[in-house]
Amino acid sequence: MSEATARFPAEWEPQSAVLIAWPTADTDWAARLAEVEDTYIALVAAITRFEPVLVCVSDADVEAYARARLSSARVEMGRVRFVELPYDDTWLRDTGPITLRNADGFDLLDFRFTGWGGKYGASRDDRLVEGLHATGLFPDGTRQPIDFALEGGAIETDGAGTLLTTWRCLSERHPGVSRAQLTERLSGWLAQDRVLWLDHGYLEGDDTDAHIDTLARFAAPDAIVFQACDDAGDSHHAELQEMAAELAALRTPDGAPYRLFPLPWARPIVDDGRRLAASYANFLIVNGAVLMPAYGDPADDRAAAVMQAAFPDREIVQVPCRPLIWQNGSLHCITMQLPAGSIRADLFDA
Protein backbone atom coordinates (compact mmCIF):
# COMPACT_ATOMS: atom_id res chain seq x y z
CA MET A 1 0.00 0.00 0.00
CA SER A 2 1.26 3.46 -0.88
CA GLU A 3 0.28 5.83 1.92
CA ALA A 4 1.00 8.76 -0.39
CA THR A 5 -1.69 7.72 -2.86
CA ALA A 6 -4.19 5.86 -0.66
CA ARG A 7 -7.36 7.52 0.62
CA PHE A 8 -9.99 6.29 3.09
CA PRO A 9 -13.37 7.27 1.57
CA ALA A 10 -16.11 8.73 3.73
CA GLU A 11 -19.23 6.61 4.07
CA TRP A 12 -21.31 9.13 2.13
CA GLU A 13 -19.21 8.66 -1.01
CA PRO A 14 -20.62 6.46 -3.84
CA GLN A 15 -20.85 2.76 -3.04
CA SER A 16 -20.95 -0.45 -5.08
CA ALA A 17 -22.86 -2.41 -2.46
CA VAL A 18 -23.36 -3.07 1.23
CA LEU A 19 -21.92 -6.28 2.72
CA ILE A 20 -23.82 -8.25 5.36
CA ALA A 21 -23.82 -11.83 6.73
CA TRP A 22 -27.05 -13.78 7.17
CA PRO A 23 -27.88 -14.75 10.78
CA THR A 24 -28.24 -18.48 11.50
CA ALA A 25 -28.78 -20.84 14.41
CA ASP A 26 -24.97 -21.25 14.54
CA THR A 27 -24.51 -17.60 15.46
CA ASP A 28 -25.26 -15.75 18.69
CA TRP A 29 -28.69 -14.91 17.29
CA ALA A 30 -29.99 -18.47 17.78
CA ALA A 31 -32.24 -17.76 20.78
CA ARG A 32 -34.15 -15.00 18.94
CA LEU A 33 -33.47 -15.88 15.35
CA ALA A 34 -36.97 -15.24 13.99
CA GLU A 35 -37.02 -11.65 15.29
CA VAL A 36 -33.53 -10.97 14.00
CA GLU A 37 -34.32 -12.42 10.58
CA ASP A 38 -37.21 -9.97 10.31
CA THR A 39 -34.78 -7.11 10.96
CA TYR A 40 -32.38 -8.42 8.32
CA ILE A 41 -35.19 -8.70 5.78
CA ALA A 42 -36.25 -5.11 6.52
CA LEU A 43 -32.64 -3.99 6.22
CA VAL A 44 -32.05 -5.70 2.88
CA ALA A 45 -35.35 -4.35 1.57
CA ALA A 46 -34.28 -0.83 2.56
CA ILE A 47 -30.77 -1.06 1.12
CA THR A 48 -31.91 -2.51 -2.22
CA ARG A 49 -34.08 0.53 -2.81
CA PHE A 50 -30.82 2.43 -3.27
CA GLU A 51 -28.01 -0.03 -4.10
CA PRO A 52 -27.08 -3.74 -4.18
CA VAL A 53 -26.45 -6.01 -1.20
CA LEU A 54 -23.79 -8.73 -0.99
CA VAL A 55 -24.87 -11.39 1.52
CA CYS A 56 -22.41 -13.79 3.13
CA VAL A 57 -23.93 -17.21 3.83
CA SER A 58 -22.34 -20.15 5.61
CA ASP A 59 -23.55 -22.84 3.18
CA ALA A 60 -25.91 -23.57 0.29
CA ASP A 61 -28.83 -24.37 2.59
CA VAL A 62 -28.54 -20.98 4.29
CA GLU A 63 -28.44 -19.29 0.89
CA ALA A 64 -31.57 -21.11 -0.26
CA TYR A 65 -33.38 -20.19 2.94
CA ALA A 66 -32.29 -16.53 2.85
CA ARG A 67 -33.22 -16.28 -0.81
CA ALA A 68 -36.69 -17.66 -0.10
CA ARG A 69 -37.29 -15.33 2.86
CA LEU A 70 -36.15 -12.26 0.92
CA SER A 71 -38.12 -13.21 -2.19
CA SER A 72 -41.30 -13.76 -0.18
CA ALA A 73 -40.84 -10.27 1.28
CA ARG A 74 -40.73 -8.92 -2.30
CA VAL A 75 -37.15 -7.72 -2.02
CA GLU A 76 -35.63 -6.72 -5.37
CA MET A 77 -33.53 -9.89 -5.84
CA GLY A 78 -31.74 -8.49 -8.88
CA ARG A 79 -29.85 -6.37 -6.36
CA VAL A 80 -28.94 -9.26 -4.04
CA ARG A 81 -26.00 -11.63 -4.48
CA PHE A 82 -24.69 -14.33 -2.14
CA VAL A 83 -21.16 -15.45 -1.31
CA GLU A 84 -20.49 -18.63 0.68
CA LEU A 85 -17.97 -18.18 3.49
CA PRO A 86 -17.54 -19.44 7.06
CA TYR A 87 -18.16 -16.91 9.84
CA ASP A 88 -18.69 -16.93 13.59
CA ASP A 89 -21.22 -14.11 13.73
CA THR A 90 -22.67 -11.29 11.67
CA TRP A 91 -20.97 -8.07 12.88
CA LEU A 92 -19.53 -7.19 9.47
CA ARG A 93 -18.65 -3.63 10.49
CA ASP A 94 -15.90 -5.11 12.64
CA THR A 95 -14.89 -8.16 10.59
CA GLY A 96 -15.33 -6.93 7.01
CA PRO A 97 -12.71 -5.12 4.92
CA ILE A 98 -11.77 -1.51 5.63
CA THR A 99 -11.36 -0.34 2.04
CA LEU A 100 -9.02 2.42 0.89
CA ARG A 101 -8.71 3.75 -2.64
CA ASN A 102 -5.26 3.91 -4.22
CA ALA A 103 -3.85 4.86 -7.59
CA ASP A 104 -4.26 1.32 -8.95
CA GLY A 105 -7.48 0.21 -7.25
CA PHE A 106 -8.21 -0.61 -3.65
CA ASP A 107 -6.47 -1.72 -0.47
CA LEU A 108 -8.54 -4.18 1.58
CA LEU A 109 -7.15 -3.62 5.05
CA ASP A 110 -7.34 -6.85 7.05
CA PHE A 111 -6.75 -5.92 10.68
CA ARG A 112 -6.82 -8.57 13.41
CA PHE A 113 -10.26 -9.27 14.83
CA THR A 114 -9.96 -10.53 18.39
CA GLY A 115 -13.62 -10.76 19.40
CA TRP A 116 -13.58 -7.22 20.86
CA GLY A 117 -10.51 -7.74 22.99
CA GLY A 118 -10.91 -11.48 23.57
CA LYS A 119 -14.47 -11.33 24.89
CA TYR A 120 -15.68 -13.92 22.34
CA GLY A 121 -14.26 -16.57 20.04
CA ALA A 122 -13.63 -15.17 16.57
CA SER A 123 -11.23 -17.39 14.65
CA ARG A 124 -13.44 -17.65 11.55
CA ASP A 125 -14.39 -13.98 11.67
CA ASP A 126 -10.70 -13.07 11.74
CA ARG A 127 -10.31 -14.84 8.36
CA LEU A 128 -13.35 -13.24 6.71
CA VAL A 129 -11.47 -10.61 4.68
CA GLU A 130 -9.00 -13.24 3.47
CA GLY A 131 -11.90 -15.43 2.39
CA LEU A 132 -13.71 -12.60 0.62
CA HIS A 133 -10.57 -11.58 -1.24
CA ALA A 134 -9.99 -15.18 -2.37
CA THR A 135 -13.40 -15.27 -4.10
CA GLY A 136 -12.23 -12.85 -6.78
CA LEU A 137 -15.01 -10.37 -5.99
CA PHE A 138 -12.43 -7.57 -5.70
CA PRO A 139 -10.49 -7.69 -9.01
CA ASP A 140 -8.62 -4.44 -8.31
CA GLY A 141 -8.35 -5.04 -4.56
CA THR A 142 -5.14 -5.99 -2.79
CA ARG A 143 -5.51 -7.56 0.65
CA GLN A 144 -3.26 -5.92 3.23
CA PRO A 145 -2.98 -8.05 6.40
CA ILE A 146 -2.12 -5.90 9.43
CA ASP A 147 -1.17 -7.56 12.71
CA PHE A 148 -3.01 -5.05 14.88
CA ALA A 149 -6.41 -5.34 16.52
CA LEU A 150 -8.85 -2.79 15.06
CA GLU A 151 -12.56 -2.94 14.33
CA GLY A 152 -14.33 -0.88 11.68
CA GLY A 153 -16.84 0.41 14.22
CA ALA A 154 -14.00 1.97 16.19
CA ILE A 155 -13.07 4.49 13.49
CA GLU A 156 -14.87 7.22 11.57
CA THR A 157 -13.41 9.26 8.69
CA ASP A 158 -14.49 12.41 6.89
CA GLY A 159 -12.86 11.20 3.67
CA ALA A 160 -10.51 14.19 3.72
CA GLY A 161 -7.86 13.02 6.16
CA THR A 162 -9.52 13.36 9.58
CA LEU A 163 -10.19 10.29 11.73
CA LEU A 164 -12.49 10.30 14.77
CA THR A 165 -12.16 7.59 17.42
CA THR A 166 -12.36 6.89 21.16
CA TRP A 167 -9.49 6.46 23.56
CA ARG A 168 -11.49 4.01 25.67
CA CYS A 169 -11.65 1.44 22.87
CA LEU A 170 -8.17 1.76 21.39
CA SER A 171 -6.42 1.88 24.75
CA GLU A 172 -8.30 -1.24 25.88
CA ARG A 173 -7.15 -3.13 22.78
CA HIS A 174 -3.57 -1.85 23.10
CA PRO A 175 -2.89 -0.96 26.74
CA GLY A 176 0.86 -0.65 26.32
CA VAL A 177 0.71 1.81 23.42
CA SER A 178 0.69 5.57 23.93
CA ARG A 179 -1.78 7.93 22.31
CA ALA A 180 0.99 9.42 20.21
CA GLN A 181 2.01 5.96 18.99
CA LEU A 182 -1.58 5.00 18.21
CA THR A 183 -2.09 8.26 16.35
CA GLU A 184 0.99 7.60 14.23
CA ARG A 185 -0.03 4.03 13.40
CA LEU A 186 -3.63 4.83 12.58
CA SER A 187 -2.59 7.80 10.47
CA GLY A 188 -0.19 5.65 8.49
CA TRP A 189 -2.36 2.61 7.90
CA LEU A 190 -5.54 4.61 7.21
CA ALA A 191 -3.91 7.45 5.24
CA GLN A 192 -5.07 10.15 7.66
CA ASP A 193 -3.61 13.58 8.35
CA ARG A 194 -4.86 13.74 11.93
CA VAL A 195 -6.73 11.74 14.57
CA LEU A 196 -9.35 13.29 16.85
CA TRP A 197 -9.74 11.41 20.14
CA LEU A 198 -12.79 11.40 22.40
CA ASP A 199 -12.13 10.62 26.06
CA HIS A 200 -15.79 10.48 27.08
CA GLY A 201 -18.87 8.63 25.91
CA TYR A 202 -20.17 5.13 26.53
CA LEU A 203 -23.41 3.16 26.43
CA GLU A 204 -24.57 0.51 28.86
CA GLY A 205 -25.08 -2.77 27.04
CA ASP A 206 -22.22 -2.02 24.63
CA ASP A 207 -19.41 -4.58 24.77
CA THR A 208 -17.18 -2.87 22.18
CA ASP A 209 -15.54 -0.55 24.74
CA ALA A 210 -17.17 2.55 23.24
CA HIS A 211 -16.99 2.19 19.48
CA ILE A 212 -17.25 5.60 17.86
CA ASP A 213 -20.10 4.43 15.61
CA THR A 214 -22.38 4.18 18.65
CA LEU A 215 -21.51 7.72 19.75
CA ALA A 216 -20.50 10.27 17.09
CA ARG A 217 -20.42 10.21 13.28
CA PHE A 218 -19.38 12.56 10.51
CA ALA A 219 -22.28 13.82 8.39
CA ALA A 220 -20.01 16.01 6.24
CA PRO A 221 -16.40 17.19 6.54
CA ASP A 222 -17.62 20.00 8.82
CA ALA A 223 -20.54 18.25 10.59
CA ILE A 224 -20.92 15.61 13.31
CA VAL A 225 -24.08 13.79 14.41
CA PHE A 226 -23.86 12.47 17.97
CA GLN A 227 -25.86 10.64 20.58
CA ALA A 228 -26.97 13.06 23.29
CA CYS A 229 -28.74 12.44 26.59
CA ASP A 230 -31.03 15.13 28.00
CA ASP A 231 -32.35 13.06 30.92
CA ALA A 232 -30.49 14.30 33.99
CA GLY A 233 -31.64 11.25 35.93
CA ASP A 234 -30.17 8.77 33.47
CA SER A 235 -26.88 7.02 34.24
CA HIS A 236 -25.47 8.17 30.87
CA HIS A 237 -26.20 11.86 31.34
CA ALA A 238 -22.91 13.10 32.80
CA GLU A 239 -20.70 11.08 30.47
CA LEU A 240 -22.56 12.06 27.31
CA GLN A 241 -22.63 15.70 28.41
CA GLU A 242 -18.84 15.50 28.72
CA MET A 243 -18.65 13.98 25.24
CA ALA A 244 -20.83 16.76 23.84
CA ALA A 245 -18.45 19.32 25.33
CA GLU A 246 -15.48 17.52 23.75
CA LEU A 247 -17.18 17.59 20.37
CA ALA A 248 -17.94 21.29 20.73
CA ALA A 249 -14.24 21.91 21.36
CA LEU A 250 -13.08 20.06 18.23
CA ARG A 251 -12.06 22.05 15.17
CA THR A 252 -12.00 21.33 11.47
CA PRO A 253 -8.63 21.51 9.65
CA ASP A 254 -9.53 25.13 8.86
CA GLY A 255 -9.95 25.93 12.55
CA ALA A 256 -13.74 26.24 12.55
CA PRO A 257 -16.01 24.47 15.04
CA TYR A 258 -17.97 21.53 13.69
CA ARG A 259 -21.68 21.86 13.03
CA LEU A 260 -23.17 19.55 15.66
CA PHE A 261 -26.43 17.60 15.47
CA PRO A 262 -27.43 16.07 18.82
CA LEU A 263 -29.66 13.00 18.59
CA PRO A 264 -32.51 12.47 21.07
CA TRP A 265 -32.35 9.89 23.82
CA ALA A 266 -34.61 6.84 23.68
CA ARG A 267 -36.31 5.60 26.81
CA PRO A 268 -34.37 2.82 28.60
CA ILE A 269 -34.78 -0.59 26.99
CA VAL A 270 -34.16 -3.37 29.51
CA ASP A 271 -33.94 -7.08 28.74
CA ASP A 272 -33.89 -9.55 31.63
CA GLY A 273 -32.60 -6.79 33.89
CA ARG A 274 -29.91 -5.66 31.45
CA ARG A 275 -29.89 -2.18 29.88
CA LEU A 276 -29.49 -2.32 26.11
CA ALA A 277 -27.58 0.17 23.96
CA ALA A 278 -30.23 1.92 21.86
CA SER A 279 -28.12 4.45 19.99
CA TYR A 280 -29.41 6.45 17.04
CA ALA A 281 -25.81 7.21 16.02
CA ASN A 282 -25.50 3.66 14.64
CA PHE A 283 -26.91 4.64 11.23
CA LEU A 284 -25.75 3.56 7.77
CA ILE A 285 -25.23 5.96 4.87
CA VAL A 286 -26.04 4.50 1.44
CA ASN A 287 -26.39 5.98 -2.04
CA GLY A 288 -29.02 8.69 -1.71
CA ALA A 289 -30.24 7.77 1.76
CA VAL A 290 -29.46 7.28 5.43
CA LEU A 291 -30.82 4.14 7.07
CA MET A 292 -31.30 4.79 10.77
CA PRO A 293 -32.13 2.35 13.56
CA ALA A 294 -35.61 2.61 15.05
CA TYR A 295 -36.49 1.12 18.42
CA GLY A 296 -40.26 1.54 18.64
CA ASP A 297 -39.76 4.63 20.79
CA PRO A 298 -41.32 8.11 20.52
CA ALA A 299 -37.80 9.44 19.97
CA ASP A 300 -37.51 7.55 16.66
CA ASP A 301 -39.27 10.27 14.68
CA ARG A 302 -37.37 13.05 16.43
CA ALA A 303 -34.11 11.26 15.60
CA ALA A 304 -35.23 11.05 11.97
CA ALA A 305 -35.81 14.81 11.94
CA VAL A 306 -32.28 15.41 13.24
CA MET A 307 -30.91 13.09 10.56
CA GLN A 308 -32.82 14.98 7.88
CA ALA A 309 -31.29 18.24 9.07
CA ALA A 310 -27.81 16.70 9.03
CA PHE A 311 -28.31 15.01 5.64
CA PRO A 312 -30.69 17.39 3.79
CA ASP A 313 -30.10 15.82 0.37
CA ARG A 314 -30.76 12.22 1.44
CA GLU A 315 -33.88 10.26 2.22
CA ILE A 316 -34.08 9.11 5.84
CA VAL A 317 -35.35 5.53 6.23
CA GLN A 318 -36.13 4.00 9.61
CA VAL A 319 -35.27 0.31 10.00
CA PRO A 320 -36.64 -1.59 13.04
CA CYS A 321 -33.56 -2.62 15.02
CA ARG A 322 -34.81 -3.39 18.51
CA PRO A 323 -33.94 -7.12 18.15
CA LEU A 324 -30.32 -6.28 17.34
CA ILE A 325 -29.51 -4.46 20.56
CA TRP A 326 -30.19 -7.66 22.49
CA GLN A 327 -26.74 -8.69 21.20
CA ASN A 328 -25.19 -5.29 21.96
CA GLY A 329 -25.10 -3.78 18.47
CA SER A 330 -27.38 -2.11 15.93
CA LEU A 331 -27.75 -1.30 12.24
CA HIS A 332 -24.31 0.07 11.38
CA CYS A 333 -22.63 -2.77 13.29
CA ILE A 334 -24.03 -5.48 10.98
CA THR A 335 -23.10 -3.75 7.71
CA MET A 336 -19.99 -2.71 5.77
CA GLN A 337 -20.18 -0.46 2.73
CA LEU A 338 -18.03 -1.29 -0.31
CA PRO A 339 -16.84 1.82 -2.23
CA ALA A 340 -17.90 2.33 -5.83
CA GLY A 341 -15.80 0.28 -8.23
CA SER A 342 -14.36 -2.01 -5.57
CA ILE A 343 -16.24 -5.18 -6.57
CA ARG A 344 -16.68 -6.95 -9.92
CA ALA A 345 -18.59 -4.73 -12.31
CA ASP A 346 -20.67 -7.62 -13.67
CA LEU A 347 -21.72 -8.99 -10.27
CA PHE A 348 -25.18 -7.45 -10.29
CA ASP A 349 -25.86 -7.62 -14.03
CA ALA A 350 -29.29 -9.02 -14.79
Automatic annotation (TrEMBL):
InterPro entries: Peptidyl-Arg-deiminase_porph (IPR007466). Keywords: Hydrolase. Pfam families: PAD_porph. This is Agmatine deiminase family protein. It comes from Luteimonas rhizosphaericola.
